[in-house]
From TrEMBL:
GO terms for cellular component: plasma membrane. NCBIfam families: PRK13682.1-1, PRK13682.1-3, PRK13682.1-4. Keywords: Cell membrane, Membrane, Transmembrane, Transmembrane helix. The keyword Nucleotide-binding does not apply. This is UPF0391 membrane protein BN1012_Phect1801. It comes from Candidatus Phaeomarinibacter ectocarpi. Pfam families: DUF1328. Belongs to the UPF0391 family. The keyword Transmembrane applies. The chain crosses the membrane at residues 7-27, 33-51.
Amino acid sequence: MLYWAVVFFVVAIVAAVLGFGGLAGAAAGIAEILFFVFVVLLVISLVMHLVRGRSPRL
């Protein structure tokens, strides 16, 4: 998921340099949404890992 956020960010940068305003804005918006989804999933994963913990080995 982070890979796609970076891909859309790069597309937005290239489109902005070339002067495609609408395309750059759309790609930047998609990259931003994917980045925040990635961050939320990371936080949920970390919390679940801490809550589950590990059982002691016998």
